[in-house]
Specification:
The complex is a heterodimer. By secondary structure, chain A is an all-alpha fold. Chain A has helices spanning about 5-30, 40-60, 60-85, 90-115, 135-140, 145-155, 160-175, 180-190, 190-195, 200-225, 240-250, 255-270, 285-300, and strands spanning about 275-280, 280-285. Chain B is an all-alpha fold. The two termini of chain B are about 15 Å apart. Classes of the chains: A mainly alpha, B mainly alpha. At the A-B interface, helix 3, helix 4, helix 11 and helix 13 of A face helix 5, helix 6, helix 12, helix 14 and helix 15 of B.
């Protein structure tokens, strides 16, 4: 395998890991606050659609980002109303949100564009263009390090760098701020938080809305950066892979980065090489596609380090009267 | 003392939930510039206005009875089996293995074997998540979701590399032999007036038997009592000497088996070969059906017919009203799940308060 192909593989891994990472961190906020979210997939999809639609009509990718985040936050708020206000089943609410997104995106896009569930192709400023970091051109001649800098580190869209920045930021918010301490507490023992005079409902709603905003960025990246426009069902299970990555990472930000890069790498490997041979055995491409899920089940089984979710996760909080 | 009469719980609240879902769907139809009343008329006429429509409605309903019962049985043990999709896909594999490996002399023998095969494969696919939940405490929802994806990858691999007919490009198995063809409603009961090509087949009767089986199991056997007790309170069940590992395993195996049996209708009864994605989302519809049907076989049966009407009516709607795409179905389905499942308390609390107020006056 030549150096060029390795570089291409890693570059593609970073691109494919970005939506996973954003969605995974989104789920992290929600689940650390005790709200299970299997509706990440739906929020990715709805924001992919609305970001593409807004970017198409305004010609601005950044306005697309705003629309994408807003639509995902509306869905997140719906999840919050169902699971926090009305204390409904969080899993069922997530299932409903996924279906609502896959139905609504097609119904609305067919009605708006008559393109069979797509938005028109996005071009120019309505997409997030790849940024060239300073000196990337002039350093590209340097052996080994030059191409790594100019091809792998430089040359991604703004959202990729934003996603990577979210990792230390999330770590800092979670572990070094008062809000983060409360957020983690409300996911472990909401009654204690309540006793301390802090509103469980408000904290959980905040967490769910942050989750929506991050999913919105992820969906926008899918539609305006990774592809040029919305395509029916374009989230393609990424919300569930992000969920798998979250479990894989045991609900911690830095590990989430590692897990998402790993799953992005698997995805890139599967799409660049159609046939992979390891030790003389041909590995089917379907196995590579299923590997993130298989790894997650192995982790969940607790044979390789046990994944323990936040203790109050999935339980609606009922205040004592 | 109950907060409200039983009929309110089993009929009134689901009805209000359904009504809310339909009203919101109507608003969506209105938004995209079509008339909701006209859309509703087309759907109802398309679903139950002719023998042709009824054939498709009941065919879809058969799928949903199996997947709905699967979710319902697991619900009784307070397990949320979201893996119906994968279990049904594996059930399809079981049907294909049974139908392709033996030259069946008569469909009735093939049917019995296919029921066993599909149930065994579906149950096997539910067994790993069940074991991990029972023994290692891994959350069943997450593992069954993962198993849905693994099942779909496995099925693609097998259809492309193992079962594909040599020389054919299509990733599907060979057509099942004549002996494994299930008679459809036209062949069984010509006097009912179903057209010759109706997809409704003898599996519908198997689905009705499955309803009866689940009712007997849950309310008339010791095992069913144990499942319900475990679902109500795990600690109380353990105190009463009920083994949680056993209950989780058995209820999930039955659930997976029922989901797998869906394949006798779609794979053996209709397609007569195993194709990519033989389940077409029916595993997820089962969640909506079980929620609406309050996990009772009769409720599941009625809800499954209702969803069958939605699916058949929705297909007609997409045909007659090109402005409304077929995905409108998913919107309706999502809203039914949302209102009956997640927002149930929104309707329940006011209704309970109303009944309490009436009781005080009375």
């Amino acid at each position: 395998m030549s150096f060029d192909i390795v570089l291409q593989l890693l570059d593609s891994s970073v691109r494919l890991a970005t939506p996973l990472l954003l969605a995974c961190l989104a789920g992290l906020y929600s689940e650390r606050a005790g709200i299970f979210d299997i509706g990440l997939e739906g929020k990715l999809l709805i924001s992919a659609f609305f970001s593409a639609a807004a970017a198409y009509s305004t010609g601005s990718a950044w306005l697309g980002l705003l629309a994408g985040m807003a639509s995902a936050m509306v869905f997140a708020a719906l999840h919050g109303v169902a699971s926090i206000t009305f204390r409904g089943n969080q899993l069922i609410s997530g299932v409903a949100i996924n279906f609502l997104a896959s139905g609504m995106t097609v119904v609305v896009s067919v009605s708006w564009y008559q393109l069979g569930g797509r938005t028109p192709q996005l071009e120019g400023a309505s997409r997030f263009q790849d940024l060239t970091l300073p000196l990337a051109e002039s350093l590209s001649g340097v052996p080994i390090l030059g191409p790594i800098y100019s091809e792998l580190i430089s040359g991604h869209s703004a959202l990729v760098y934003l996603a990577l920045l979210m990792v230390p930021l999330t770590w800092w918010v979670l572990n070094r701020t008062r809000f983060g301490l409360r957020l983690r507490a409300v996911g472990e023992n909401p009654a204690a938080v309540d006793t301390a005079g802090i509103s469980v409902v408000r904290l959980r709603f905040t967490a769910v809305l942050i989750c929506g905003a991050l999913c919105g960025i992820a969906g926008t990246y899918l539609a305006t950066s990774l592809s040029a426009g919305f395509i029916k069902e374009m989230s393609a299970g990424r919300g569930f892979i992000a969920l798998a990555a979250l479990i894989f990472a045991k609900w911690r930000p830095w590990y989430a980065l590692m897990a998402c890069l790993l799953f992005g790498f698997l995805d890139a490997t599967g799409s660049i090489f159609q046939n992979i041979e390891i030790l003389g055995f041909g590995v089917p491409v379907q196995f590579m596609q299923a590997l993130p899920y298989i790894l997650t089940v192995v982790i969940l089984a607790g044979f390789v380090g046990k994944a323990i979710p936040p203790r109050a996760g999935g339980e609606p909080y009922v205040k004592e009267r | 003392m109950d907060k409200m009469p039983k009929w309110a719980d089993v009929a009134l609240i689901p009805f209000i939930n359904l009504l809310l879902a339909l009203i919101v769907s109507g608003l969506v139809v209105l938004y995209i510039g079509e008339s909701p009343v006209e859309a509703m008329t087309i759907m109802v006429r398309g679903a139950v206005g002719s023998a042709y429509g009824w054939g498709y409605t009941l065919y879809y309903a058969t799928n949903f009875i199996f997947t709905g019962l699967a979710v319902a049985v697991a619900f009784h043990a307070r397990m949320f089996n979201i893996g119906g999709e994968g279990q049904a896909a594996l059930g399809g594999l079981g049907v294909a293995v049974v139908c392709l490996s033996v030259g069946w002399p008569h469909w009735s023998m093939a049917l019995i074997a296919a029921v066993l095969g599909s149930a065994a494969f579906g149950a096997a696919w539910a067994a790993v998540p069940a074991y991990l939940q029972a023994k290692r405490g891994s959350h069943i929802v997450i593992t069954t979701i993962m198993f849905n994806f693994i099942a779909s990858a496995l099925l693609v691999y097998l259809l492309v590399n193992v079962f594909r007919v040599p020389g054919s490009m299509a990733p599907e198995t060979a057509r099942f032999a004549e002996g494994a063809h299930l008679p459809n409603a036209h062949a069984i009961a010509p006097w009912l007036g179903f057209p010759r090509s109706t997809p409704l087949n003898v599996s519908f009767l198997v689905a009705l038997v499955a309803c009866l089986f689940v009712w007997l199991l849950i309310w008339r056997t010791r095992l069913g009592y144990e499942i319900r007790a475990f679902g109500e309170s795990e600690t109380a069940a353990v105190y009463a000497g009920i083994n949680p590992v056993r209950i989780i395993m058995i209820s999930m195996l039955i659930s997976g088996g029922l989901a797998g049996m869906m394949a006798i209708n779609s794979v053996m009864g209709e397609a007569e070969r195993l194709v990519l994605d033989p389940v077409q989302g029916a595993g997820f519809v089962g969640i909506a059906v079980a929620l609406m049907g309050r996990s009772h076989p009769i409720g599941v049966l009625l809800a499954a017919v209702l969803f069958g009407m939605l699916y058949q009516g929705g297909a007609e709607l997409a045909f007659d009203m090109p402005g409304v795409s077929r995905e409108m179905l998913l919107v309706i389905q999502a809203l039914v799940i949302l209102f009956t499942g997640a927002l149930d308390n929104m309707v329940r609390s006011p209704v309970q308060r109303m009944f309490l107020a009436m009781r005080k006056e009375g």
